[in-house]
Design goal:
alpha+beta, DNA Methylphosphotriester Repair Domain, 5-stranded antiparallel β-sheet, 4-stranded mixed β-sheet, zinc, metal-binding, EC 2.1.1.n11, AlkA_N, HTH_AraC
């Protein structure tokens, strides 16, 4: 968002939590930076300056506030709502690419030169990719310091630092405390089972958990996902190993319990859980826009804060979308469960009933299509998709160019607008995908007096842009849709 000084000052004076993560307030007299909703007495306007990222604050020599902990603000909604170079770069940085592959690896994934990527990030965010990744490493280090009993040397490398010295220097610089002092200030009792972390995932209120967790629970693939003890649980394929995430809705946060085989995967696991639940969305902006339509306004008022259930693995979701073509939710789960049992990687889950990682594209590319219990045309669609994914010709990850990915999907046999838009909405994260041919959407449109034909409904939905993916969630809520519930 453009940093208009007058609006920023007004947000800070009113302690408006809606702007947490949109910008950061740096205080010139104390050299401390805060989130807009910081509970301390606001500084004088002449002592405030504003930055678009925590990394920019740190680059300018400001330390994180110990009261409001700005490093734990929800992420900016822009990075999940935009598809340009900067947004794609930020999604990749959040996914830990700079720590694993360096800035050259980041640039290569984006298809730009290192210099172009650095220049654009610096111009918009006031910090380059290394500084942005360093700020993220500091946040990960703090989380490990405060929630585990790991030795500091192990935390340093798990957080992505190249040396213990760099870890110590960064923690002191960012938090004005040494690592041991941070641990001493943390609430007692945080240490638990090795490799298991409990944390809180913040979000912008309101959040409607019904559609979000109801959808994930109702479409859960046995062995990979489950609803247990009030939490959605699923397995995670991660860069250094595997993990299990347990996510439960709370009034002001999502309770997240991560079991990781390698703690170096912590940053990417958090990023993927946040993306799965669409936690960086700005529901007030979305709902405010959709309320301007008289047909949608009552739906928004009845259950504001609906999110778009997304995915932790874009390739997995594309495969599942093909398995779900023209069949019921139950049948799609059955097909996916058979693939998991036959080709997924087994793992242990002492706390529940999860048994496998979803098969990788490489594993699925080796499957004989004739062994699949589905129509021949869909077997061809499945085989073509997994080959494209396994060979790297089709990219659906956080770095994907949305328009290019759509075009490549439409060029594959058996991919029509419904399948492509479902993948765009749930896997690519396009906030403006729309499903005018979906049976649930057409039934909802008829009930609300909206146009019934796909072409007319698409024309009517032009006023809902750029948030048509969220309009889909509200429309589904009007139907006796089998996924619109929150399990008991």
């Amino acid at each position: 968002m453009p940093l208009d000084r007058e609006h920023c000052v007004r947000a800070v004076r009113s302690k408006d939590a809606r702007f947490d993560g949109w910008f950061f307030t740096a205080v010139l007299t104390t050299r401390i930076y805060c989130r807009p909703s910081c509970p301390v007495v606001p500084p004088k306007p002449e002592n405030m300056t504003f930055y678009p990222s925590a990394a920019a604050c740190q680059n300018a020599g400001f330390r994180a506030c110990k009261r409001c902990r700005p490093d734990t603000s929800p992420g900016s909604p822009e990075w999940n709502a935009r598809a340009d170079l900067v947004a794609r770069a930020m999604r990749l940085i959040a996914d830990g690419v700079v720590d694993r592959e360096g800035v050259p690896g980041l640039a290569a994934r984006l298809g730009y030169s290192t210099r172009q990527v650095e220049r654009q990030l610096l111009a918009e965010l006031g910090a380059g990719p290394l500084a942005l990744a360093r700020a993220q490493r500091a946040q990960t280090a703090r989380l490990l310091i405060e929630t585990t009993a790991l030795p500091m040397a192990e935390i340093a490398f798990a957080a992505g630092f190249a040396s213990v010295r760099a870890f110590n220097d960064t923690v002191r610089e960012v938090f004005a405390l040494s690592p041991s002092e941070l641990r001493a200030r943390a609430p007692k009792g945080g240490a638990g089972t090795p490799g298991v972390l409990s944390l809180r995932l913040p979000f912008r209120a309101p959040l409607n958990p019904s559609n979000l967790f109801g959808h994930l629970a109702a479409t859960a693939v046995p062995g990979v996902e489950e609803w247990r003890d009030g939490a959605y649980r699923r397995t995670l394929r991660l860069p250094y190993g595997h993990g299990i995430a347990a996510l439960a809705p709370r009034p002001d946060h999502i309770a997240c319990r991560l079991t990781l085989s390698d703690l170096r995967d912590l940053t990417v696991a958090i990023s993927r859980c946040r993306r799965l639940l669409d936690l960086d969305a700005d529901p007030l902006a979305v709902d405010g826009h959709l309320r301007t339509d008289p047909s949608l306004a009552p739906l928004v008022d009845q259950g504001p804060g609906r999110r778009v259930p997304r995915t932790v693995d874009e390739a997995e979701f594309a495969v599942r979308a093909v398995l779900g073509q023209q069949v019921s939710t139950a049948a799609a789960r059955t097909h996916a469960a058979r693939l998991v049992t036959a080709h997924g990687k087994p793992l242990d889950d002492p706390e529940g009933g999860l048994t496998h990682l979803f098969p990788s594209p490489e594993a699925l590319a080796a499957v004989d299509p004739e062994t699949l219990a589905m129509p021949r045309t869909r077997r061809t669609t499945f085989a073509t998709l997994v080959r494209e994914l396994a060979d790297g010709r089709l990219h659906l990850g956080v770095e994907a160019d949305w328009a290019e990915a759509r075009a490549r999907l439409l060029a594959l046999p058996g991919f029509g607008p419904w399948t492509v838009d479902v993948i765009a909405m749930r896997a690519l994260g396009d906030p403006d995908a729309f499903l005018p041919t979906d049976l649930g959407i057409r039934r909802a449109a008829k009930e609300l007096g909206l146009p019934a034909t796909p072409a007319a409904l698409t024309a009517r939905a032009e006023t809902w842009r750029p948030w048509r993916s969220y309009a889909v969630q509200y429309l589904w809520a009007t139907d006796s849709h089998p996924i619109n519930f929150l399990p008991a």
